[in-house]
Amino acid sequence: EAGVAQSPRYKIIEKRQSVAFWCNPISGHATLYWYQQILGQGPKLLIQFQNNGVVDDSQLPKDRFSAERLKGVDSTLKIQPAKLEDSAVYLCASSLKFAPSASPLHFGNGTRLTVT
Amino acid sequence: QKEVEQNSGPLSVPEGAIASLNCTYSDRGSQSFFWYRQYSGKSPELIMFIYSNGDKEDGRFTAQLNKASQYVSLLIRDSQPSDSATYLCAVNTQREAGTALIFGKGTTLSVSS
What we know:
The complex is a heterodimer. Chain A has strands spanning 5-7, 10-13, 19-24, 31-37, 44-50, 53-56, 65-69, 75-79, 88-95, 106-107, 111-115. By secondary structure, chain A is mainly beta.
């Protein structure tokens, strides 16, 4: 079974620039998550999709972040414009089932973003 | 009150000892609880999940859940240096549109040989 694919692995941009991350979940997984993990902290949920609908985006800074999941498969996360505090690893994860008996998440390798 | 709380550590134990990692959560309705391990520079990987009150054992790992106290723990028996990592507690938490998996900040475990 192929895992969660993410690209790029690393990205360095200047503040106020824009950046986009891509995620391809495990085949058949209905739920897709984007997490932000700042160094030394746990993953913070940015947005959760069930198929192509948004379940939770309460922690997504909507003035600069946007995400979409086309046709309920691939997803992109965009930041525009980036700020220094956006420097983090952006993790994509997918799971087979939706809550309440949520199935475990499978994480991709993440994209490490550095904003200078 | 934070939704999922863990002591950040570091927790240091000698090789062969039992490591005890703790987590509390705020949503009384939570039904699913997970422990993930994260090595430095890597993504989290699932170790165990538990849904019912009591203990669940898997090899050297035991997860314990007490819903009345809103407490979940992970015990690692016969700790090995390779267990040195950050352990993340994750809890399925009710949101307006459904439930979401919320992580704690993680506890760093260091096992010395």
